Amino acid sequence: MKLSVLPIFTPLSPYKIYLINQSTTTILLQDLITLARKTTKFTIDTESDYYTHEPALIQIEFLHSQSIVLLIEICHLPHELSVLFWMIRSLMNIIFKPSNVIISWGDTKRELESFISCKLISIKLIQQINDIDVQGYFKDWHDNLLENDYDHPLFDNKEMLRSYSRKSLEDRNHKWSLQMAITYVFREFLDKTRTQSSWSRSLDLSGLKKSFIPNMKQKTIVKQMIQYAVNDCLAVTKLTKLLDLT
């Protein structure tokens, strides 16, 4: 199954990435709070550490002509009694208010429940989220198609894609992976190589102690992890536009 022969995934619009952690400035957070108040649609994803299974990262995309993607590093947040922590929690309260639309691939509320212990979000806040599970809508869209076109000049695994598609048609409980959905519709490769990563590590290399200087391999791994995390939001947003869900 060589999906990597396909063109690399391309998002719909340009974007900026911000890491949210104990080194984030209050000025940036105030700007993000202001922007969040002007935003009504967000795409969200989460990551847990592959080795410890602890909740580690919340990714949030602000949907605009130029998207903003936040990577909230749960294991590297400021002290919960600090002003900085209060501002991050305020930002979350604005993003998840009921009047906003929260877009995801899968059950957002279930994913977020494991993050309650970090004290950024409460069960009450999670329960009131107005969410759209694109994964379910995509299956319905696929299963209702009258014609399937699998041709792509670089794609030599047509039978694999047909087989995956048939599973969806034959099993009403079948859940499409985000990677396969992107492949099916856009004939693009969404790289999931970094799925099994230590997501609890710091992604902010600029905030590391001066005594620790990351080597080139470590820098490459972190860069790939960041792109993986960001793409998981951008890919869902791209499918949302296709399905005309917002």
* Alpha-carbon Rg, integer: 19 Å
Class, according to the CATH hierarchy?
A: Alpha Beta
Specify the helix fraction band. Answer: 25-40%
Characterize the biggest β-sheet.
6 strands, mixed
- Secondary-structure-derived class: alpha/beta
- Tally of domains: 1
In the predicted model, the low-confidence regions spanning at least 5 consecutive residues are none
Largest sheet strand order? 1-4-3-2-5-6
Shape by Cα distribution: globular
**Count of distinct strands:** 6
- CATH fold field value: Nucleotidyltransferase, domain 5
Mean pLDDT: 90
Distance between the termini: 33 Å
Pattern of helices and strands? EHEEEHEHHEHHHH
Q: Which CATH architecture is right?
A: 2-Layer Sandwich
Number of helices: 8
Range of strand content: 5-15%
Description:
A six-stranded mixed β-sheet has the order 1-4-3-2-5-6. The chain has 246 residues and is of the alpha/beta class. The chain has helices at residues 26-37, 83-95, 108-113, 123-127, 134-143, 158-170, 178-186, 216-243, and strands at 15-20, 41-48, 55-62, 67-73, 101-104, 131-133. 39% of the residues lie in helices and 15% in strands. It has one domain (3-135, 185-243): Nucleotidyltransferase, domain 5. The mean pLDDT is 90. It is globular, with a radius of gyration of 19 Å. It has eight helices and six strands; from the N terminus they run E-H-E-E-E-H-E-H-H-E-H-H-H-H. This is 3'-5' exonuclease domain-containing protein. InterPro entries: RNaseH_sf (IPR036397). It comes from Rotaria magnacalcarata.
